[in-house]
Amino acid sequence: MVFVNGEGRFVGPRTLSVALPEGGTRLLKADIVIVSTGSRAVIPDIHGLRASQPMTHVEELELDTLPGHLLVLGVGYVGLEFAQAMARFGSRVTVINRGERLLSNEDEDVTAALAAVLAKEGIHLQLGSTLESVSGRSGDPVTARIRTATGEQVVEATHILVAAGRQPNTDEIGLEKAGIELSPNGYIKVNDSLQTTAEGVFAVGDCAGSPQFTHIAYDDYRVVQRVMKGESATVSGRQVPYTLFTDPELAHVGLHEHEAKEQGIEYRLLKLPMAAVLRTRTLGETAGFLKALIAADDLILGFTALGVGAGELLAPVQLAMSAGLPYTALRDLIVTHPTMSEGLMNLFSSTPVQ
Questions:
Q1: What is the DSSP string of 186-203?
Q2: How far, rounded to the nearest angstrom, does the alpha carbon of residue 139 sit from its chain's CA centroid?
Q3: Cβ 73 vs Cβ 44: under 8 Å
Q4: What is the pLDDT of residues 192-251, one digit of tens each?
Q5: Which of 83, 104, 151, 320 is the most buried (most CB within 10 A)?
Q6: Among this protein's residues, is 69 annotated catalytic?
Q7: Strands, E, within 88-197: which ranges?
Q8: Any bridge partners for residue 26, and if so which?
Q9: Out of 47, 215, 252, 337, which one is annotated catalytic?
Q10: Domains, the chain, with CATH or none
C-alpha cells in the first residue's frame, strides 16, 4: 500500500492527478478506484449567516472557550448532542428548528420524552421557528432574528453552531471526466453493489448517498471488498441501526411505529419503562423506555430504546432480526441479573399495548 498525501481530481477514466503539498503533481491510474470523499456541513442561505462565520461540528470540537450563549440551528444528531454537552458545561443554549418537534423521523412518544429531558436541563427549544437573519460574528456578540408563530423575536448570543444537514463532497473533483454521474442532489449514482456509472469505479459512504453513519460506511467497504473478490454483495435490505448519543441515549433499528401505520403493516406494540429494568435503578438513571413492534408471525419489525446505555441493547435485537428469530427467542433467554440486557427479556415478556 502506498499513501499519497495531496489533493486529487479525476482527469480521465480511473485516472487522477494529485497536487502534492510540497509542489508538483503525481498521476495515478488504477484498475479499481473507490471514491470516499465524504460530506460537509451545509450552511443555509440565510441573510448574514455565512458572514457571521458560524461553527460547524468541526469548529465546535476545536473550541477552547465556553460559549456564554450558544445558538444551535438544527435538531439532528449533531445539534442535540452538542446542545446538551454545552449546556452541561455551563452554556446557555437555544435550539432553533423549522419543524414542530425534534428528530422528525422518530415516533412522537420518543421525541416528546427526549424534548422533556432537554428542557429540564435548561435547553430552550425554539421549535416551529425560522431563522430570518444574523448580524455580528460567532465568538463575539451576534444577533439572530427569528420568525415564530407569534411573530418576530430577537435573540442575542455569543456563538452559533450550524447543524442543519450535510452535502456530499463531489464538486470540483473531475467526476465528469471519469464518466461518473451524479444524482440531482449531488450524490454519486451507484447501484446496489455501490458500483458507479464508470467501469471499475465504486463509491462508498456519504458521497454515495449511504445513510450518514460511520458504521454504514464501514459496511459499504465490506460490500465493495466482496464484489471485488467476485462474490455477490448488496446494500439492499440491510439493517441501519443508529444511536443518538445524548443522555439518555436513543437507539433504534428497523421499522418505526409511525412507518408501520403509514404502510398499513399490522403489529403488536410492546413497551416498557426504563424504571422496570432494574439495572437502571442501581445506576440511578431510570429515564426513558423500551418499545418493540411485533409482526403477526412473531418476528421483530422494529426496536427503539431511550435510556441509559440504549445503544448497547441494539446488537441482541439485531441478531434476532437478521436470523429471522421470533421475539420469543429473546423473551425466553436466561439473562444475568441485574443487567441492561435483562430489560429485553422483560420487554418481550410484557403485555402488548392496546
A1: SPBP--TT-B-SSTTEEE
A2: 27
A3: yes
A4: 999 999 999 999 999 999 999 999 999 999 999 999 999 999 999 999 999 999 999 999
A5: 83
A6: no
A7: 92-97, 124-127, 130-136, 142-148, 151-157, 159-162, 166-168
A8: 18
A9: 337
A10: 7-30+170-228 (3.50.50.60), 50-166 (3.50.50.60), 243-349 (3.30.390.30)
